[in-house]
Write a structure and sequence with these properties.
mainly alpha; 71% helix
């Protein structure tokens, strides 16, 4: 549950969130930067490590023998590669800026992206945890 909330926060509050009144006024200005595919990817990249840390350091899970930093790096790279290479997401991220911004703000896209990110992140975390567990030294 904590992971899902973190992913939602990443997507909704850093890139696609409804704008405040001040931001809305700025958006009328021609100098406002439109949402780009790179912004979507960078927003995820910036929050991935804290999400992984939150999941693996949570009270529900205790993995004292795991190298959380190593898992985080490889799981985040794996997640981004998997989620952003998804055919439907890749098609949308290739759209012209104005159309991309409209699509990225839609609830359907948010739900789809959230689902892909969560599924990819859990899959990648599982693979990385398995690798570390398989190579763990059991001699104490």
């Amino acid at each position: 549950m904590r992971l899902q909330m973190s992913v939602v926060a990443v997507i909704m509050f850093t890139v696609i969130a409804p704008q405040s009144a001040a931001q809305e006024a700025q958006s009328q200005d021609a100098s406002r930067k439109p949402i780009t595919a790179e912004m979507v990817k960078n927003s995820f990249s910036a929050m991935c490590a804290p999400m992984v840390s939150g999941v693996l350091n949570g009270q529900e899970i205790s993995l004292p023998l795991m190298d959380i930093e190593s898992i985080s790096e490889t799981a985040c790279a794996c997640t981004a590669k998997r989620a952003f290479s998804d055919t439907r997401i890749a098609e949308i991220l290739r759209l012209p800026e104005q159309e991309l911004e409209s699509r990225v703000k839609s609830q359907n896209f948010r739900n789809y992206l959230l689902g892909r990110l969560v599924a990819s992140l859990y899959g990648c975390l599982g693979e990385n945890i398995n690798e570390q567990v398989n190579s763990a030294d059991l001699e104490f």
